[in-house]
Specification:
The complex is a heterodimer of chains A (429) and B (372). Chain A is of the alpha/beta class. In chain A, 19% of the residues lie in helices and 28% in strands. Chain A has a 7-stranded mixed sheet. A 7-stranded parallel sheet of chain A has the order 14-17-20-23-26-29-32, with no helix packed on it. Chain A is globular. By secondary structure, chain B is α/β, with parallel strands linked by helices. The chains are: A alpha/beta (429), B alpha/beta (372). Strand 14 of chain A pairs antiparallel with strand 16 of chain B.
């Protein structure tokens, strides 16, 4: 027996997030690390449980292994329930054949049976790639009060940036009369946050209609919402105030991490009323050594800091040796930064090894560009990685020293840096 | 591992009256985010002991809060897992206070009877170490010993508040004599509060020892070293005894040494687990100055911290200086306050411009929840 629920959440976590390049080569975007201890999906899952929504379907498709492991039984978010709880919903085979999720709307369509088990009045559609703290329950109350068929959460963005978002044009009472995807001349600055609440009955009706339509790209923003508007359904915009960030690009991911810093950070994670839960690793508290200097930074457990850390976010288990400098950077789990190495204005993924006196990236003040090292990259002693480079996972980097090695190595990108995978390196040495 | 774990949660409570006033030894905070029992429980679960009984005596509410279902140690099990044991000597309706280990063991006979495991690992809670009991059990089995007791060769002359058991060992690591002393010299074999015995052997000898009027199990082994094969098992890595506020401060500050952190926390496949509370990572402000310190998650550091252990959720305001101190969970150190050789218990608030100072050998202790 499934206990009836008032509202079921469906979390779209199947996207690749290709604009995050190497960071999402092996993991889905919602599993990307953020803010020292978290993964992007922690924010949405914590919002759900903090809002009293205890039934969450997570739709996965792209590289789901690590995301599945991470969510597991949902215990870190108190979502390990006998009734409801978190469920991973991958695409599956059916009698009439199976298919991948063709779009956001199709993904929900294929899982209507999951929603139906709980007989909810309302369904909230979320995406697992935004950083924000939001009480969905308030939005649900608004939705009920307006007796809306669909409510879309909107954020006021600066007018000059409005053309980058999906913009909702509304009447004074909040009712939406028009939706424009990335308009060149926006009429309003109310940007959709990708959070939708539907009456279940209306959602199902439009999903089935959309499924019939062969020309549809099976997407909420492109098809379902416009179709509902066209038919004159009651659709309202719910104004959200507070921090919201789409961390879909390397630059915005870096910015999102930097928003944790400063005396009054834009994003406060020390908020006891709205805790963001995450899966824990058994790390000891971090150690700051005698020669270390740490200013305006966020540092997680398990770190050993003997060098200088300025304006940076360090994840658990990072080691910074004596004389090394990390500035304006995001350094993820278990990265090792050797003596004298300098990392400037970079995102460094998990398990990277940076050799002695290596130099990664260029100071922002000197016109440096964001530099990115993929997971498990090894940077040899003294190597310089120029600003703006995006280095693929498992690469082994060094100056060309022995010319006879050249043939074995994979790519030569700039003059003094060569790229090869670690396996190839082991074959050489 | 075919062994059962028995943890004595409030042995030696009285030795550190300050920090055990409102809690038992097992739940004394340690090292920024741990409680003392975390070490024993993690050692056991890492060694494959899945059936653990924690013997309680005094108010153990804070211990229950900490352990919960045992999930953090992967011990929330249908079969085995963690169990809190109350030791009642007999079925009479009066509540009898038990104050010795033999009576305690007799009182939990029901638990020993029920378990299927062949061996029992007995451990105290006033110890900090990272040990593999499976290696110790292997040595116990290979030597066909009746009892294997953990000891450490003392590295330096030490004076303890209470008498500590010291062993005389022969060439084959067989214990021939057990003495008690407060002065312990270099290379004396110091008892580390841990032993392995066969369950049936233990059960038989508990009753025998009580009938003969013994109160301490160690004394019983000591007087019968001719009859039983009592072996020592040397532990060579970092080990700390908490027997006074001074040793509490010292062993906490030991964590500032890399070798100690490696011995305790960085053993492959042997992490120390503790209960989790979703704290955010620690934030350092633009004016933060930190040297040689252990800092847990959820802190906001804007002042100066030197040679100290800072627990979870501590706020250190601008211009404040904390040195050679232990600051426990959720404390707040006000603007321009100065702390030196201080142990503040949980939830202490130090106002602006306060100046508090203890000494290395006499650290000053501030009680839980104080406002200064």
């Amino acid at each position: 027996m499934f206990r009836k629920k008032k509202c079921v959440a469906m979390l779209l976590a199947g996207g690749q997030g290709s604009r995050l390049h190497v960071l999402t080569k092996q993991i889905a975007k919602p599993a990307v690390h953020f803010g020292g201890k978290y993964r992007i999906i922690d924010f949405t899952l914590s919002n759900c449980i903090n809002s009293g929504i205890d039934t969450v379907g997570v739709l996965t498709q792209y590289q789901p292994l690590e995301l599945n492991d991470y969510i597991d039984n949902g215990e870190p978010w108190d979502l390990d329930r006998s009734h409801g709880g978190v469920h991973i919903l991958p695409p599956y085979q059916q009698v009439k054949g199976g298919d991948w999720y063709k779009g956001t709307a199709n993904a929900i369509y294929q899982n209507m049976n999951f929603i139906e088990r709980y007989q909810p009045e309302y369904v909230i559609i979320l995406s697992g790639d935004h950083i924000y703290k939001m009480d969905y329950n308030k939005m649900l109350e608004y939705h009920i009060e307006k007796d809306a068929d669909c409510t879309i959460a909107v954020l006021s963005v600066p007018m000059e940036e409005a053309s980058r978002f999906g913009i909702m044009n509304t009447y004074e009472d909040g009712r939406i009369y028009e939706f424009e995807e990335k308009p060149s001349n926006p009429k309003s600055n109310k940007a959709s946050m990708g959070v939708y609440i539907f009456k279940k009955e209306a959602l199902f009706r439009y999903l089935m209609e959309d499924e019939e339509d062969e020309n549809s790209s099976k997407d909420f923003g492109k098809n379902v919402i416009p179709a509902m508007l066209y038919s004159g359904e009651k659709m309202f915009a719910y104004p959200f105030e507070g921090y919201w960030k789409d961390v879909g690009t390397l630059q915005s991911l870096w910015e999102g991490n930097m928003d944790l810093l400063g005396e009054r950070p834009k994003l406060d994670l020390n908020d006891h009323k709205w805790k963001i839960s995450y899966r824990h690793y058994p790390d000891h508290p971090h150690f700051i050594g005698n020669d270390a200097s740490v200013t305006n930074s966020v540092i997680a457990e398990g770190c050993e800091i003997h060098g200088t850390v300025i304006n940076s976010v360090l994840f658990s288990g990072v080691t910074v040796e004596k004389g090394a400098v990390i500035k304006d950077s995001v350094v993820m789990r278990n990265t090792f930064v050797s003596e004298g190495a300098i990392i400037n204005y970079s995102i460094v993924d998990v398990g990277v090894y940076v050799g002695k006196d290596a130099k990664v990236g260029e100071d922002r003040g000197n016109g440096g560009q964001l530099t990115v090292l993929g997971s498990n990259v090894k940077v040899k002693d003294g190597t310089q990685i120029s600003s703006g480079e995006i280095i693929d996972s498992n690469m082994y980097l060094k100056y060309i020293e022995k010319s006879h090695l050249k043939g074995l190595l994979k790519v030569i990108k700039s003059d003094d840096v060569i790229y090869s995978t670690r396996q190839e390196r082991e074959a050489i040495e | 591992m075919n062994a059962l774990g028995i943890v004595f949660s409030n042995i030696n409570d009285k030795q550190v009256p300050e920090i055990t006033k409102k809690r038992i030894m097992a739940s004394v905070p340690f090292g920024g985010r741990y409680r003392l029992i975390d070490f024993v429980l993690s050692n056991m679960t890492n060694s494959g002991i899945n059936n653990i009984g924690i013997v309680t005596k005094r108010n153990y509410q804070n211990l229950m809060d900490h352990i919960g279902t045992g999930k953090a140690w992967d011990l929330a099990r249908k079969r085995g897992g963690i169990r809190l044991l109350q030791s009642f000597p007999d079925d009479s309706e009066e509540v009898v206070q038990i104050d010795n280990r033999l009576e305690t063991l007799k009182g939990i006979m029901y638990y020993l009877d029920k378990a299927d495991e062949k061996y029992v690992v007995l451990s105290d809670c006033d110890i900090v170490c990272n040990i593999s009991y499976s290696d110790m059990l292997k040595s116990h089995q290979e030597n066909h010993a009746d009892v294997t007791i953990l000891y450490k060769k003392n590295q330096e002359n030490a004076t303890w508040k209470e008498k500590r058991p010291v062993f005389k060992l022969d060439k084959n690591e067989r214990i021939s004599k057990i003495e008690r002393s407060t002065n312990i010299k270099i290379s004396d074999a110091l008892y580390l509060g841990t032993m392995i015995v066969q369950k049936e052997f233990l059960k038989k000898h508990i009753s025998l020892a009580i009938n003969k009027g013994y109160t301490r199990i160690l004394d019983y082994w000591a007087d019968h070293t001719d009859h039983f094969l009592v072996k020592g098992y040397e532990f060579k890595e970092y080990f700390a005894y908490i027997d006074s506020l001074e040793s509490y401060l010292k062993s906490n500050l030991d964590l500032l040494k890399l070798s100690v952190r490696e011995d305790l926390f960085r053993k492959p496949y042997r992490p120390i687990y503790t209960s989790v509370n979703d704290s955010a990572p620690t934030k350092y402000g633009p004016s933060a100055v930190v040297e040689n310190s252990i800092i847990a998650d959820g802190c906001i550091i804007d002042g100066t911290v030197k040679n100290s252990i800072i627990f979870r959720g501590v706020k250190i305001k601008k211009y404040a200086t904390v040195s050679n101190s232990i600051v426990m969970q959720d404390c707040e150190i006000g603007i321009n306050a100065t702390l030196n050789h201080i142990v503040t218990d949980k939830n202490v608030q130090i106002g602006e411009n306060r100046m508090l100072c203890g000494h290395e050998t006499h650290p000053f202790y501030i009680e839980k929840g104080s406002r200064i």
